[in-house]
Amino acid sequence: MRSLVVIGGGPRAAGLLERIAAQQPALDLVVHVVDPFPAGAGRVWRHAQSPLLRMNSMAEDVTVFTDDSFTGLGPVRPGPSLAQWCDVDPASFPSRQVQSRYLEWFFSHVVASLPPNITVREHRARAVRAVGNWVHLDDGTSLVADVLVLALGHLDAEPEPEHRKLADHAAAHGLVYVPPLYSADADLSAVTGDVVLRGFGLAFIDLMVLLAEGRGGRFVRSGADLRYVPSGLEPRMFVGSRRGVPYHSKTGYRLQGERPVLPRFFTADAFRGHRWDFRADVWPSIAKEVAWGFYHELFTGHPGRVRVPFAEFSTAFAALPWYSAEMRELEVRAVPDPADRIDFELLDRPLAGRTFETAEEFQEHLRSYVTADVARRSDPRHSADLGAFLALLSAYGQLVEVPLREADDWWHGYFSYLASGPPPDRLEELLALSRAGIVRFIGADMWVEAVDGAFLAGSATTPEVVRAGGLIEARLPTHVLSRTADPVLRSLRAVGDISEDTAGQVRVSAEGRLINERGEEDPSRFAVGPYTTGKAFAAFSRPHTNAPAFRQNDVMARAILETLSD
């Protein structure tokens, strides 16, 4: 009997097992799934987290099943989306606990679909090292692996030098410092008084919920007005970031026009052949793709807001480079309202060049900005933003096959800022907390210093300097192989069986095989997930989008079965 050991039992591992099941292999096989957290959900999606934490995706936009859009070689095996499985409002944003149950059910469903010659054994333990074809667990168990798969998910990292200094400063002066980590894992019990949060993305939203409503406060709605009633146990949160604004709200409407055929301008085939520089070569094509999705919806869904026929616009649009004076002239001639044109630079840095004489003036400005964002993302008149979102997803899916010199950190952050924002009601809660004085905005290009027995923070946006007794890094840890906290990766790195690219990601082949320090592909070890050069695609996706993760799982499953059969 052959042995497959999968370290990590989250949704990626479950998806890989589903693709193995889809092949219905004839060989006798035992699959060992190693994870201290429940299989299917794993650490990030485990049920044992605050019921206040929710997904940032609508229920109808989450599936773990392939469908008729799937282009992999393996068979399609359809199944219910999250909305269909739990019979909820398709446009709702379920709790992470609900998603946890969906993922646990999916894993059980996959195991039940395996042929009788394949057995799955779960090990609620942590893998601590891989030596040869042995995998050693922290409960004393050792497993033989004919094939080893690292499906480790999001990983912790050893602190960066700056974080060590901040932690040392906090320890020396009786302050509170929370380094980058996953919000559900953070110990926030000592966070009181004034605290600075560095980061304005989804991690901040989670922390905001845990430190406000999680401390006993409550939101009271009266018509369109949302008010926060404090419990008295909340800290006062000062938040800032590079942009100084929160991620854009998720849209709450459907396309009003024709659904665009995507991709149109950014395809992996156009970039095959050699390695590319992201900013110089790749981003202009992505920008044109996203703009195409935006204008396609504007012209087909809102023809009264444009001056020229769509056929004329699309022909001219296709012929012009995105970054050209002629393209800008076309936009102005065809789209009279500047609010109906897409501006990537303004979207990226909405506070660029803006300064305010007082912090209070800036609080009012940012509240107005967030209010306008929620209104725009809730109004079908602005469904062109959804067209851009769909094109952005299409471009992200194509990137899995584009060889780059390095993954551009700006791009991943920009994608999340535009496409992975919170539900609109979370931003309404942010506004209520701001009006109640619980949350204060610092501004753009935020800086933090550890001096005089405190944490100081400020920005170029206002002259105010905040003095606080706590600092929370409201962002996920940046994982690089040289600083990994994962013991298995460390054991493989120590003997040269694994290597990293210039961005610190674990190098893997197109099939997901580990690449060692000599540049050789490992014949029996694979890795998949956000810590690899295989890109950080989600383990579940929107239905009918030919999800890249599903295609990756399919390729890897076939390679694993071929290796086991050899």
What's the count of strands?
A: 19
Overall structural domain count: 3
Question: What is the averaged pLDDT score?
Answer: 94
Name the helicity range: 25-40%
Which topology of the largest domain does CATH recognise? FAD/NAD(P)-binding domain
Name of the CATH architecture of the largest domain? 3-Layer(bba) Sandwich
| Large-scale geometry | globular
What is the radius of gyration?
Answer: 24 Å
How would you describe the oligomerization state of the chains in this entry? single chain
Question: Biggest sheet, in brief?
Answer: 6 strands, mixed
In summary, what is this structure?
Residues 5-154 form the FAD-dependent urate hydroxylase HpyO/Asp monooxygenase CreE-like FAD/NAD(P)-binding domain. By secondary structure, the chain is α/β, with parallel strands linked by helices. Helix content is 34%, strand content 16%.
Explain what the structure shows.
This protein has 566 residues and is an alpha/beta fold. The chain has 3 domains: 2-157 and 479-565, FAD/NAD(P)-binding domain (3-Layer(bba) Sandwich), CATH 3.50.50; 161-247 and 422-473, FAD/NAD(P)-binding domain (3-Layer(bba) Sandwich), CATH 3.50.50; 268-350 and 365-416, no CATH class. It is 34% helix and 16% strand. The chain has helices spanning 11-23, 82-86, 96-113, 161-173, 202-211, 278-301, 310-319, 325-334, 344-348, 359-378, 384-398, 409-419, 424-435, 487-494, 548-565, and strands at 2-7, 29-34, 118-123, 127-131, 134-137, 142-144, 147-150, 176-178, 194-198, 218-222, 225-229, 236-240, 439-443, 447-451, 454-458, 466-468, 470-473, 513-515, 521-527. The strands form 5 sheets. Strands 3-2-1-7-19-18 form a 6-stranded mixed sheet, with helices on one face. Strands 8-17-9-12-13 form a 5-stranded parallel sheet. The chain has a 3-stranded antiparallel sheet with strand order 4-5-6. α1 (11-23) runs parallel beside α3 and α6 packs antiparallel against α11. The radius of gyration is 24 Å and the shape is globular. The two termini are 13 Å apart. 44% of the residues are buried. The model has no long low-confidence stretch (mean pLDDT 94). Residues 5-154 form the FAD-dependent urate hydroxylase HpyO/Asp monooxygenase CreE-like FAD/NAD(P)-binding domain. This is Adenylate cyclase.
